[in-house]
Write a structure and sequence with these properties.
homotetramer, 307 residues, alpha/beta, TIM Barrel, 8-stranded parallel β-barrel, 48% helix, lyase (chains A, B, C, D), DapA-like (chains A, B, C, D)
Chain lengths: 307, 307, 307, 307
């Protein structure tokens, strides 16, 4: 697989990490999940993201998961791997491991201690050195990291680091930020902008100039459809489909709970064998499972109406 | 108006504070807004909440706004007033002012410095003394305050303070928390639970035992409908209506931007004269206004389909 | 009194607000405290700072305290007043009140929600408009505010706002920052730099180019001595005195506890009648009082040795 | 070496990790540092603490450093190893590695996401399972972690986890907390309390019932002396020595800068070959080095005076 480029677009699904009931990695489910995502129209996959329970894996497990995903994908789409680490030595080690396995690039989120623009620019400059020439994705997710990265700061990072090829855009609110980044004066070159937040702003994000999504949702076909219809100028159809999925997408977007919802639905759909989260993740309450069942049934009904 | 009680239910709309283009308070719009909220079916109003731009008002202005709202409501529904302050002396002064004007109760959010359970319990115990026998609402909104209040902590606060009659529930995720609070073992007496978050989880919140909503949305009739149909057991109808409004509700729920969206729509609907926010609030971008127009048009279309 | 200027220097003592045992403001102690600070060599006073329990006062009380301080000072030194507020309307009102009373300038700390450089610059630009032509002090105290202000951001604020005449420097660590700000390339004009942190880095701060201190310590004569001896080039003498006071200064510098320590010592010295803090401030434990007594006794002994 | 017990006392020095100028680990300096700490009177060592640059090491490097320290100590004192990790899998792996090497116990700090008492109790309960029967130290350091752990929460953790044998006490202010924990009613059994904060409150901490220190300072002999003289009831002598070191200890205690100061002094004393920090650590400015030189010279002078 050649490397990730600034031309990335479509839907890079953030892959979950499937576990068996005993907490071990369920490699058969990894394979099925990869097939499912690609059949749904994913143009890329992202492994070991925050929603991939990355911090709960040992480095050996991280390597094994990435290896399995890459083997199953077999070059059909690029694989991005999250390598955010408490220190640069670990980031360097993990990056080398996964690039050797065949990843197309890595993704880096800032540590929560960063505050000033200069601190942020300096951090990514050093991180870029430690990942060493590998194409990388800048993860901009203030709700999770506590770090706010202004448009001018992104501009400096992009100018300083030729290997920064993509922004995983997850600022909230963030629509005007996409517009500002697409203003040709602001960045010295075009990078890919793939959006997060579980896809719940995807129609508007595409309208502002995003290239697609890099996020998770138990129905990735929603995101694929929105991007596809947007590219054909069929915005009403894109929004009709989006609206049908939105009640569940909104429910899945609850922080701290969303991954358990996603795994529950993926298991229900037969994609993964078990909805298990590794500890400290807790199972869903009966009431929450019931809420999901109602939402899924209504969603199926609405999709049939839409044809 | 008699005081707020633990029997509060329905929809307490968080009132915006209307400003003229020059930044002064627009009292005529206050009147029209009150009429609009009551015609939409509000069972109460909440003034000077976070979304009422309370910190941007002088104390004289706060008093004037509350006086005007109360005069216009003229006893038809209870008025709750946000009195969160950096110190207890200010909280005491503001509480006395608004209760003298005829408010039914006050609402208190915790300062962001609180961390441990004991600190939170102690803070509300002292606040209760300073508001002095007035019925009060505990505002539980971790996304804004940074303070997480566990079920057992709420239980201690309720047990300690007989005048704590209502929880403004805005934890996220927070559905299981409602369920836990409704578990008869957890609280020593029943208090009202009115939910926030712009109403975007209202069907599920009602299902868990909430008594209604205390939040804002430019279409308060959505919340009124959901509560009404839920009370009649017509959950499918409640959800059909909810789903029709959800694309816009989701858009309005963007933090930091949402109030400008709400005021834009309220001005568009003729409720307030101008969408102006007091500084440092910024006006909406042209792209955002266009997004709203699309969402409103689609919403109207969908509502006509639903009949 | 004419206004505060960029030539401010020496020791601006952060005044405590003395309360009687019943929590009311003790105006007689205000007078005695003013006399004490001026006799100790203060070149200015700062009222309603964070350590002045400002948020615990009503606006009427704030005005009364400032009026009393200014009356007692009677033009001998300039009075700076903290006007940090949750909103600009309140900041404007308080500023007008205290300048009418005869204050020389105001001090503004950033709200904890600010993160990016642009947000910080924009905030102070707007605040400067709202205080309206009054000389003001930029309070840079990340430990308390959570806001980190880089040298380049301070430079932008100083360039944008001619009335920003002084930095209350309280970053930690912050010595190199003073040096950077004194580098003639960094600021377009010289502003006063007065340092905080209870004076526990004062010798080093003076060495880096500070103009003095703006902070509190129950023995302000320590800070006056350090500044005086530094100005004469008697650094060893300055450090000898500093070292004698350091064990107590370090103890008083404990956050959250320090003000109670300071008031305890000021009461012990006969400066204020009671060590009372307004609630939620708690009284000192017996063990803490005992620690202070030991530290004061040893300090007196050491000072006698030094002569 | 047998395991760490609740009888731990004296001075557990937080070991730095020495690097060569090229950033590689300098094992010869590790040996010299171990000898130096033991000759200074350390009763234990703590490796891979926050001040040991632990997050900057790969897991192989972490293992190598711990192995070297343990080999050099050769059973003379117990070695505690910091194993705080983003996830339990990594914590488990690292714990197993270092216990196999011969460590006496591990130290665990809470992740910054924890807020409520229940969340904290639950986290340590799960962590205790993952470290699996190994004696462990609870690190209570709110300034660095953002997590505040109340006395009653510590009490619950100690009651739930028999292998929690020691508190690394670094709350600030925290003296009354030690007193509360020593109150026999509060804990169901006595655990060791070793204090942090660079030793700058050590005399008072010992007075409240601490068993010693677990922290770093370039002159560990200061802490050893304070503990020793305190145990003999020679508090004046303890304080005389403490006061002589305090000006430098205070300087070294600046967060973010302190480790560079410590390594500079350790290199100056010949303990480690180079003062190098791994990136992103920056070298000291010339002015800071000059400040240190003045402080060291004055300290030596004062110690000679004291005899």
């Amino acid at each position: 697989m050649s490397g990730l480029t600034a031309g990335a677009n479509g839907v890079y699904v953030i892959a979950v990490t499937p576990f068996s009931g005993d907490g071990s990695i369920d490699m058969k489910s990894v394979d099925r999940m990869v097939d499912f995502y690609l059949e749904a129209g994913a143009t890329g996959l992202t492994a070991l993201g925050m929603m991939g329970e990355a911090p709960k894996l040992t480095i050996e497990e991280s390597q094994a998961v990435v290896r399995r995903i890459i083997a199953r994908v077999s070059g059909r789409v690029p694989i991005v791997v999250g390598v955010s680490s408490p220190g640069f030595a670990q980031m360097h080690t993990l990056t080398k491991l996964v690039m050797d396995e065949g990843a197309a690039g890595v993704m880096i989120a800032p540590p929560s201690s960063l505050r000033t623009d200069d601190q942020i620019v300096s951090y990514f400059g050093q991180a870029a050195e430690f990942v060493g020439g590998v194409p990388w994705v800048l993860q901009d997710f203030p709700l999770a990291t506590g770090v706010q990265i202004s448009v001018s700061t992104i501009s400096r990072i992009v100018a300083d680091n030729p290997n920064c090829v993509c922004l995983k855009h997850e600022d909230w609110p963030g629509l005007d930020k996409i517009g500002a980044l697409r203003d040709t004066e602001k960045l010295n070159r075009r990078i890919a902008i793939l959006c997060g937040n579980g896809g719940i702003y995807l129609p508007e994000e595409m309208g502002r100039g995003a290239d697609g999504a890099m996020t998770g949702f138990a129905y990735p076909e929603m995101m694929v459809s929105v991007v596809k219809h947007h590219s054909k100028g069929e915005m009403d159809r894109a929004r009709d489909l989006f609206d049908a999925y939105l009640p569940l997408a909104r429910f899945e977007q609850q922080p701290g709970l969303g991954l358990a919802v996603r795994k529950y639905v993926l298991a229900k759909r037969g994609v993964i064998a078990e909805p298990t989260l590794r500890r400290p993740g807790a199972p869903l309450s009966a009431s929450t499972r019931q809420d999901i069942e109602v939402l899924v049934a209504r969603q199926e009904h609405r999709l049939r109406e839409l044809g």
